[in-house]
Amino acid sequence: MELRDGDIKLRAWTLDDVPAIVAACNDAEIQKWIPVIPRPYTEEDACAFVQGEAPGSATQQVAIVHDGRVVGSIGMGVNDSRTGHIGYWCAREARGRGVTTRALRLLCKHGLEDLRLERLELITDPDNRASQRVAEKVGFQREGVLRSHLLHPDGRRRDSVMFSLLPGELL
């Protein structure tokens, strides 16, 4: 799959992307919000991710490329109920520039129009306001809090906020 919106491209990961993945996934901000990312994040972890062998690899992840540089990841798994489950991260140098919002809009359009999915979902940490703003800019609606939803590496359990997008709601 390759999707484009001007200077934003979503494309398959390659082994050439490993250094960019390692750098991004060792960023404290990404590790704070995504508890399933190994700590520290190694080249071996990135290779497993690219090759679809990492935990959670049932979700198809693609690179977010802006002006020819890898600046993030976005992925979607689809269940038997025709619901897409989306996750994303953005490298520090690309944050606050609308790149993730544009990437999310591209993926949602693909899911709703091409794949004819009937519901898209994503979760964020209740304190991750930036990720919530990305979802809301695309049309996702906050549904509620999933209590004690995610286990973090330090043993804490944290709530998650569920967002959904239905056909006809994409902004």
Describe this structure in words.
- The protein is an alpha+beta fold and 171 residues long.
- It has 5 helices and 8 strands.
- The protein has helices at 18-25, 28-33, 43-50, 99-114, 129-138; strands spanning 3-5, 8-11, 60-66, 69-78, 83-90, 119-124, 141-151, 157-165.
- Helix 1 packs across helix 3 (43-50).
- The longest helix is centred in the middle third of the chain and has 16 residues, at 99-114.
- The radius of gyration is 15 Å and the shape is globular.
- It starts with a strand and ends in a 6-residue tail after the last strand.
Secondary structure blueprint with pairings:
Layout: E1 3-5, E2 8-11, H1 18-25, H2 28-33, H3 43-50, E3 60-66, E4 69-78, E5 83-90, H4 99-114, E6 119-124, H5 129-138, E7 141-151, E8 157-165
Parallel strand pairs: 5-6
Antiparallel strand pairs: 1-2, 2-3, 3-4, 4-5, 6-8, 7-8
Helix pairs in contact: 1-3, 4-5
